Amino acid sequence: MKLRTISFLILGMVRFGATSGYAIKKAADAGTSAFWPTSLAQVYPELARLTEGGLLIRHDDSKGGRSRAAYELTEAGEEALLAWLRSPVETPLQMRSEGMLRGFFADALPKEEQLVVLRRQQERIREVKEHLFDGDLRAAAKAIDAGEMRYPIVLGDFGEAALDFTYEWMGQFAEQLEAELSD
Amino acid sequence: MKLRTISFLILGMVRFGATSGYAIKKAADAGTSAFWPTSLAQVYPELARLTEGGLLIRHDDSKGGRSRAAYELTEAGEEALLAWLRSPVETPLQMRSEGMLRGFFADALPKEEQLVVLRRQQERIREVKEHLFDGDLRAAAKAIDAGEMRYPIVLGDFGEAALDFTYEWMGQFAEQLEAELSD
DNA sequence: GTGTGCATGTAAGGAGTTACATGATTGC
DNA sequence: GCAATCATGTAACTCCTTACATGCACAC
Predict the structure, then answer these.
(1) Closest C-alpha among A97, A115, A108 to residue B84
(2) Full-model pTM
(3) In three state form, how does the secondary structure of B123-167 look?
(4) What is the secondary structure of A114-152 as a DSSP string?
(5) What digits encode the pLDDT tens for the residues A22-53?
(6) CA atoms of B8 and A102, how far apart (whole Å)
(7) Which of A8, A10, A84, A97 is the best mutation test for B, with the most CBs of B within 10 A?
């Protein structure tokens, strides 16, 4: 059975207390969507696959008329997760930033407009950072097993610091551009 | 005609002097693959589409028995590129980092192993940074229209600074972990 | 009683990758 | 002569997203 990253994401979320597909998706949105986005249409088939492969067990957890599944890690599932966490193999970091691509070609614009675009991008960084505090990454620990998890917070801190760094860097470059313009 | 990011990448590369599909791919590998990867199997069909849509003109640039096309921007193509560079609309930044996803679940490992994984990730950052100087982003300006482009270098500087920042941040966290372990 | 959230799934389609197929030129 | 690079394309496949389809529970 071939395991991909989405498999480990699901195993991890189950490991830390998200039992239903819906709950996994919610925890993933809050906690990991910034560096590994998912959709429900991926989660449900993958849950079935992992159950079939013996890494998860599905229990019925229906309440009244509303059906709900509760998944649990098997020993094999736990082992697979730990082996992945320890293994050095990984898919290369891939990023798609249309903003940076525009930056790459910014020489095609006159300097005044370069500055306008840059300031707008900088503003966007600030917005993203604020959105982070609208309860994203930090809320994730709560969404799953509160208190037991340190790393969602650590990653949140890193994200915040990286955004600050980017904001500052852009600000400095913008100042340089402004200085060039006033010559 | 619907234009996607790959369309603008190609228009931009043509604008700055890459005339053949092969050359576009090479310039994209060196210059933009870090934030917008592409493959030849995307470039060739898209070149045909853009030509059909009147944004590019295809000239024959064969040398002897080896066929080669040389593309040129039409006025509409140039306008489309500039409009895109100016427009505030953009696809949201998407990133897929399996490394960060692992970090998110690192609480499942004992602290000693957390540290091993962290140090390995940190080492990887260093390697990526070195690879950058094996002539990637900075060489891109050369690969296309040398001297005319400032931003490939600017983005290279940013990338370098961001990697340094990440390396430092990880180092500090690693030290904290070490301190906790020696308690 | 109505909207929001909880809950599970499927279908269709888009974007992008790897692999395949072919051949010329250039430098060693 | 042979390997690496230049050069153009197509086919098959994978991954992932959006849209569709359905229904219960709870709070206002």
Answers:
(1) A108
(2) 0.92
(3) HHHHHHHHHHHCCCHHHHHHHCCCCCCCHHHHHHHHHHHHHHHHH
(4) HHHHHHHHHHHHHHHHHHHHTTSHHHHHHHTTTTT--HH
(5) 999 999 999 999 999 999 999 999 999 999 99
(6) 9
(7) A97
